[in-house]
Amino acid sequence: MKATLNLRFDRETIEAAKEYALKEKTSVSEIVETYLKKLTAKSSKKKFQSDNLIGILKQYKNLSNDEMRDLYMKGKHNA
């Protein structure tokens, strides 16, 4: 059963999240729900490529998924 949760963010974050959701053909609610499920999972072995980028994504918000993946792979293999 779905329930409602109200959250407050600054306008810039909300607009960036909406743009990202639109590009990814999903919703902000789905993004938040997926993140919270992953965050609260007790034994999640699945590793996501974006895990290493959390916290610095704001500066890369205009990159496509392919560009972000390439940046990640470059850093991983040049380290």
From TrEMBL:
Fetch the InterPro entries from UniProt.
DUF6364
Origin, by domain of life? Bacteria
Protein name in UniProt: DUF6364 family protein
